Amino acid sequence: MSGRRRALVVAAAGTGATVAAGAVAGTAVATAFARAVVTPARDKPDDVEVLQVGPRRVVLAATADTVVPGRYGVWTDGGRGHFRVGEVLETTGERVTRELLGVDAGTPQPGSGRWNQYCYAGTPSSALGLAHEDVLVRSEVGDLPCWRVPAPADHPAQPEARDTWAVLVHGRGATREEALRALPLLHGLGLACLVPSYRNDADGPASPAHRYGLGETEWRDVEAACRYALDRGARRLVLVGWSMGGAIVLQLVARSELADRVAAVVLDGPVLDWYDVLDHQARRNRVPVGLGRFGLALLGHPLGRRLVGLEQPVDLRRMDWVGRAQELRLPLLLLHSDADDYVPPGPSARLAEARPDLVTFVRSGTARHTKEWNVDPDGWEDAVRRFLSTHLERAADGDRGRPGG
Known about the structure:
Layout: H1 3-38, E1 48-53, E2 57-61, E3 72-76, E4 81-91, E5 95-105, E6 111-116, H2 124-128, E7 133-139, E8 142-149, H3 159-162, E9 164-169, H4 183-188, E10 192-196, H5 219-231, E11 236-242, H6 244-255, E12 262-268, H7 274-284, H8 289-300, H9 304-308, E13 332-337, H10 346-354, E14 359-364, H11 372-375, H12 377-400
Parallel strand pairs: 9-10, 9-11, 11-12, 12-13, 13-14
Antiparallel strand pairs: 1-2, 1-6, 2-5, 3-4, 3-6, 4-5, 7-8, 8-10
């Protein structure tokens, strides 16, 4: 072999090796991205510094969260302590002073803590003074711990409210405490409430692979909770979901035989299109969008899902509700902020535009992800109250028009 030819062969081999190495590296990045999407995060580190505590105010280090208006909480002492903060009283370059609304556990002291966007911590009884029962709902993966808040016995509710249960579904990586903010309103409307956990929650049963299905699998756990409510006297259901809880709820109404018992759906900061959300997350985490899309393709591939660790492929197209807008059959309230830094509101706006006959869209501009209630609790509650009052009355009229109704 001539020297020139030998050099060409060596160069080609080197190029091939470089391309192969790049492909392997790209697959590794895509796989890591996809795994992060479906893997529950158990460790949540402290992310806020408490600088001073007074009788009516607390000084915190300024962060993207601590400077936003609204009502929030702070866990302290490794989660054993908790206090709530309200109005921003003063801000400087590195410090923010907020109103101290109340102490739920422990004694607030300077030190590290963890921001609580749910505002409340504990159970319906301990956090809100609402009597509740801890119940277990049997699902295909095991018993699901749930809170059951009975309807108020002496509430002058209309029959449509007395026969209705609200089922509240938290988001990815969240806990049932995410739903606490909505309970006083729903209970005040005369509804019984059920707040279920679902597979791979910290306090719930694990799936065999210990991975989220992004709604593809979790809806069956929420269906089990709905069946529990119907078996105990509910005639109709209201479904409320936050973030990935929205994706779960919409899979239930699309795929469950119980969908005809659902009167209305309320979603806060919902995932309506996983491609849109995860493209955003790829950019946010400096992953090339092309590699992010490759990772998403792995989720739905019969072999690729093994790299990610899933029990079964996840079909993200089935969870694109902008593309499936014409399939919607239920009244839907969307509450979504333009400042949502985790689940952009674009799909909510596009779905509302595509289905103005069914979708009521309440758009806001300040709240970060699923914090619409925190920033404007009166506005959030007024929107939900008006929506449910309208659609529960219509559902009851429909029930009365059916044989045996």
